[in-house]
Amino acid sequence: MSVSVQSAELAGVAEELEAVAADARRVFGHLTAAQLNWKPTEAEWSVGQCFEHLIRTNEKFLPVLGRVARGERKGSAWERVSPLSGFFGRLMIRSLRPDSGRKFKAPAGIAPAASDVDAQVIARFGEHQTRLIEAIRAAGVVDMGRVVITSPVARFVTYNLLDACRIVATHERRHLAQAERVLRRPGFPAAAGA
Asked: What is the pLDDT of residue 1?
């Protein structure tokens, strides 16, 4: 992939991540702790859980991005020979789109807390986005289309680092939409004094 094409792709991912952070602050930044932790049903996530899940998931990518940026990352044998990296990247991006209709159960390592998400979760998410964007830009010094990584969620799934960045942005839009649906659910608590 040419440097200019990758730069444009990374700029697009960074813009999307900045937009998600801005949307999160605008739509959810004013919510109280009770509103952030309200769940439509016991089986569904609260607004706060959606953002805690995104932080936990994206934290899994930060060490990889850092090693790539510092030139310290060595691919595993599986990453070097996996014939399905391109397939898995495209599949993950399609499957995670907000309009895909597919539901997934979050693995234990990235699932949010059962309740009482910190009332500062939206501010923490914004700070996290800044670190994530910086890490993505720093890793952009290499041809990210040629760097194959293993999914932090499924150890047999591999995709290139550029697809990983696209997956992160798509995943964030998915959970932003999920959190917005929570606001529209019957019974969502009104703000104190409203």
From this structure: 57
pLDDT of residue 192: 61
Phi-psi region of 71 (alpha: psi -120 to 50; beta: other; left: phi over 0): left
pLDDT along the chain (194 residues), means of 10: 75 95 97 95 94 95 93 89 86 83 78 83 97 94 90 88 94 96 95 59
Three-state SS annotation for the chain? CCHHHHHHHHHHHHHHHHHHHHHHHHHHCCCCHHHHHCCCCCCCCCHHHHHHHHHHHHHCCHHHHHHHHCCCCCCCHHHHHCCCHHHHHHHHHHHHCCCCCCCCCCCCCCCCCCCCCCCCHHHHHHHHHHHHHHHHHHHCCCCCCCCEEECCCCCCCEEEHHHHHHHHHHHHHHHHHHHHHHHCCCCCCCCCCC
Pairing state between β 148-150 and 158-160: antiparallel
What per-residue confidence (pLDDT) applies to 5? 72
Backbone angles phi, psi at 78, to 5 degrees: -65, -40
